[in-house]
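Action item from last meeting closed. Structure (636 res):
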């Protein structure tokens, strides 16, 4: 099955292009500072080969595009592996360290297949080969799809793919052709592979709710199901980790039985489930230490994350002495060293190593200029009109600025995500431009419990915007935000909420900036990747064919005639999540209003990538266009 595509009804109309200034600031130091936050070399947390831990792979923007790099710790040699116009987003290394795998899509469309090459690199002009041999009885594109999980063992490879036909899970044994062991129209994916490679945990939503998946364990010898775990309607499970011990059938599982993300251990062989009552507020995830006696617990609470060690035998919980900041990804090396990424709103990211003796150091220092810092965030807790608890907002204010301020309300994507006290070059640029920045973790966000996350089910869009309105009112009442100079801004789901806000809350906004948005929900559903269609069915309670009025009420296109504020739309030509046709439908409706003499100021920035860009120069263009557009709208 090839990627879902559909021809546009017509060539898109010519729309006013976004103005991208050569510079945002007259002051050279300020101009250099905002750009340097984007261009400063950054890296992601290295992933290492299980049996050859000196061989690592990591992503970096050092070339000006996010690409994949190999790192041999024994020689401290770093090598750029990929060099593709739209960048490369996913890679790993085989357990023996002999080969690197990376995901080859087309121009950022996220649809493709895994390829492999030697760790040391390919001979000149050679191309990487498909990482898994194709099944002999299927078409050449059988393993093409959107990624749905990957586990690489010494003998067994488990590969998940998703297409318009649904989800498939394949097993390759001893380097042989892939064998299809699971197929379903609903969303599913590879979860975790046991250390001895006899058991594979997968997530599935055969019950029709991909937001709350169940777990199944397959025997890799023949693909047969050997165990099933489901917590019933409205409660999801996630397969996190098996211990690195042969014969150990304990699976660490994420659950939400008490209304928040917590941990349990499921012994697949015996069926025994042990819920871990870890006394921390907020939400928990994690993985096993190498010896299987303890867990590395990642604890998220109030938009910050910290690391803890949890002893399984005694139940002892120890906070790890990480560097100040919000911890991102983390993992444990064979010698017990915890490697992790951290940052804060004020301090740029770093990749660090915490040794068992408590010594903390920077693991890798990228060459070149380091990113300048920014201002810290403060917290606001505003009563939610939904009555399910307060809305948490993070606020950044230019140093020494008077009040009230022009204010940009930033709405995160997802909606299963949250803004946190992490470094953001974009947030810092808005602050440099004189705007207060308010990031709203509306209902639907993660990190605040299951009820908060699921409160948008059945009424998406409007529920989140009720929380945004409450925070907007609070900011005006506090004297922070100038009500005549408020901008709503977001990407992905945040872009969707931006367009919906402009049409349903026109009195609140002086301008709106929507990146890769859902603009016409019914057309978006028709064109988007099947994994997102499954998500939408779970979110709305059915498809557009089943619930046409609910989708219509949730669609920004429905309210386009009420839009009064200037609009900037940024869209990727190859976006599989918020496809271009439905964006063009919205833009054509704006153009039709203009032709009828009832137009609003709008501009468009189209770019040749998918759901955002991995090219640093393109990201700079987006940010410059956004801030320049907002300045014209609210500052004149």
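Sequence:
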């Amino acid at each position: 099955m090839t990627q879902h595509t559909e021809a546009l009804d017509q060539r898109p109309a010519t729309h006013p292009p976004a103005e991208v200034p050569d510079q945002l600031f007259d002051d050279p130091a300020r101009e250099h500072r905002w750009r340097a936050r984007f261009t400063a070399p950054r890296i992601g947390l290295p992933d290492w080969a299980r049996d050859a831990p000196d061989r690592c792979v990591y992503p970096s923007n050092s070339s000006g595009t996010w690409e994949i790099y190999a790192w041999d710790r024994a020689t401290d040699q770093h090598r750029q592996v990929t060099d593709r116009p739209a960048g490369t987003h996913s890679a790993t290394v085989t357990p023996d360290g002999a080969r690197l795998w990376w995901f080859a899509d087309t121009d950022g469309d996220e649809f493709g297949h895994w390829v492999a090459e030697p760790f040391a690199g390919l001979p000149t002009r050679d191309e990487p080969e498909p990482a898994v041999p194709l099944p002999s009885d299927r078409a050449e594109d059988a393993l093409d799809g959107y990624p749905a999980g990957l586990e690489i063992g010494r003998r067994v490879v488990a590969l998940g793919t998703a297409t318009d036909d649904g989800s498939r899970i394949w097993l390759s044994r001893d380097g042989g052709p892939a064998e299809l062991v699971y197929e379903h129209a609903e969303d599913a994916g590879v979860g975790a592979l046991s250390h001895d490679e006899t058991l594979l945990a997968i997530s599935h939503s055969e019950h029709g709710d991909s937001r709350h998946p169940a777990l199944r364990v397959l025997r890799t010898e023949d693909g047969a199901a050997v165990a099933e775990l489901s917590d019933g309607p409205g409660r999801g499970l996630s397969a996190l980790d098996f211990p690195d011990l042969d014969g150990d059938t304990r699976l660490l599982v994420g659950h939400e039985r008490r209304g928040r993300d917590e941990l349990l251990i499921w012994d697949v062989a015996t069926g025994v489930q042990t819920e871990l009552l870890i006394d921390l507020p907020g939400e928990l995830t994690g993985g096993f230490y190498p010896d299987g006696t303890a867990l590395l617990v990642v604890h998220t609470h109030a938009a910050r994350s910290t690391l803890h060690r949890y002893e399984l035998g005694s139940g002892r919980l120890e906070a790890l002495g990480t560097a100040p900041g919000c911890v991102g990804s983390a993992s444990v090396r064979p010698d017990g060293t915890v490697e992790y990424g951290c940052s804060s709103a004020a301090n740029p990211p770093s990749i660090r190593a915490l040794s068992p003796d408590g010594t903390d150091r920077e693991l890798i220092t990228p060459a070149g200029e380091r990113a300048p810092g920014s201002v810290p965030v403060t917290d606001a807790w505003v009563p939610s009109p939904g009555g399910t608890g307060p809305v948490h907002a993070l606020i950044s204010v230019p140093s020494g600025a008077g009040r009230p301020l022009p204010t940009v309300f930033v709405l995160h994507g997802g909606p299963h995500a949250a803004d946190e006290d992490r470094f953001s070059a974009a947030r810092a640029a808005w602050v440099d431009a004189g705007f207060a920045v308010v990031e709203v973790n509306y209902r639907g966000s993660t990190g605040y419990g299951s009820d908060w996350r699921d409160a948008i089910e059945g009424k998406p869009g409007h529920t989140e915007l009720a929380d945004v309105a409450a925070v907007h009112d609070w900011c005006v009442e506090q004297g922070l935000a100038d009500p005549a100079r408020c901008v709503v801004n977001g990407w992905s789901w945040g872009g969707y909420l931006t367009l919906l806000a402009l049409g349903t809350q026109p009195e609140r906004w002086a301008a709106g900036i929507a990146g890769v948005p859902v603009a016409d929900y019914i057309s978006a559903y028709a064109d988007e990747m099947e994994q997102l269609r499954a998500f939408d069915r779970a979110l709305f309670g059915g498809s557009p064919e089943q619930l046409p009025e609910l989708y219509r009420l949730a669609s920004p296109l429905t309210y386009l005639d009420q839009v009064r504020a200037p609009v900037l739309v940024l869209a990727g030509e190859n976006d599989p999540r918020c496809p271009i046709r439905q964006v063009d439908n919205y833009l054509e409706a704006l153009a039709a209003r203009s032709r009828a003499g009832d137009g609003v100021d709008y501009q468009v920035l189209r770019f040749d990538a998918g759901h955002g860009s991995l090219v640093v120069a393109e990201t700079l263009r987006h940010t410059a266009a956004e801030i320049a557009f907002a300045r014209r709208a609210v500052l004149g």
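Note appended to the action item: Residues 339 and 459 are 41 Å apart (CA to CA).
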